[in-house]
Amino acid sequence: MKKAFEKNKILIPISAVGVIILNMIFWNIFDKLVIPAGWFSDTKLSTIVNTVENLAASAVFILIIKKLFGMKIGIGKKELVKGIFLYGLVVCITAVTQFILSFQTPEKSLGQALPWILLFFIYNMTVGMIEEIIYRGLIFNSFRKYFGESKNDIYKAVLMSGAVFGAVHITNLIFAPALVIATITQVIYAFFFGVLFAVIYYRTGNLLPCIILHGIIDLSAAFWTCFANDIDKQINTANTTDMDIGTALMLLGTLSTLFISGLWQLRRSFKTQQTAAPKERYAF
Fold first, then answer.
1. Do 235 and 43 meet the contact criterion of CB atoms below 8 Å apart?
2. What's phi and psi for 135, nearest 5 deg?
3. pTM for this entry
């Protein structure tokens, strides 16, 4: 396969997208044939099952990326703090804002909600891990390997990988067909997030800041749910109530700052590279 990649580089992004599709098909079949149907109506059980699936899929994808595609991912301490709090500052602000705006009067004490908070924290971190491994570790690296390392090539890789990340969220309509406007909105703002996360990954050479930021932004949306007496009912209600157009436009206008930040940072990074010594990020 590696020799085929060397002869025809277009196979790299095509194969990467193909791997994602096969992964989605596999887990969909696995959930239907292996996991008892009643588990997915129970938030606690379904969250635990999905957490285990995310961990298993992460291990498989790391192996695929290294062995099949011959690419290094880069997960470690390198520029971790800078990646989260400087390059990812807009994401941090978005998470705090979402945490505040999603507030609802607690129906449980902190002690009662704590097990749910820990469960959601672990789950959302595994979501961040598997999605960043797939869409930055595999997809962004694949487009980068295909296009090359020039300024325009990196722009292409960032935008294309962000577009794939956004487009895949359209599949949420399978599980929540009533959320048409909300899903389309999510597709667009997932593209914004995908662009910024790719830039953070490119600047740091470390996927860990993206994983942590991704997990935090997801957790901030679900945090106050942990304080509800009937979490199952609240989640089911959220999955059947669509977003109005006004709210969608306001949300997209606000989250466009992620996209702007990503492109601004990338432009700044190229300017810095012109005046600084070459800096190793990650090797293919």
1. yes
2. -90, -25
3. 0.92
